[in-house]
Amino acid sequence: MAKTYLDKLSSLINDLKIEDEIAAPVEARHFFSGAGFYVNGTMCASWSPVGLAFKLSEKEVAELIARGTATPLKYFSSGHVKKEYALFENPNATKLEFWKNYFVKASEQILCKQDETKR
Length: 119
Fold this sequence. Notes:
- By secondary structure, the protein is of the alpha+beta class.
- It has a single domain (2-118), classed as Yope Regulator, Chain: A.
- Helices cover 40% and strands 29% of the residues.
- It contains three helices and six strands, in the order H-E-E-E-E-H-E-E-H.
- The protein has a six-stranded antiparallel beta sheet.
- A hairpin with an 8-residue loop joins strand 5 (71-73) and strand 6.
- The chain is globular and about 40 Å long.
């Protein structure tokens, strides 16, 4: 099952030319039931059976959830909510370009946090 999501995520990253937008190494890797998008070695997005999720600012996640655009991310119904992640439950129904902004925002957030820890 993870290979399916790795293929979907890899295709989306390639189709959007995400590597051209981010000034750091990017890669897609599989995990237990899905795939993660990593920037500089840190995961900032995932595609799994529950949908496509992005690590964003707490404020943006709260706004997306309040508007009904996204939902909180839980990998299992009885699992805990992954804070700072906005989940889009039906990513195949949305045009490709919609996702580019979220990949870039999630990547920028990771890179900013990494810069802060270096100081």
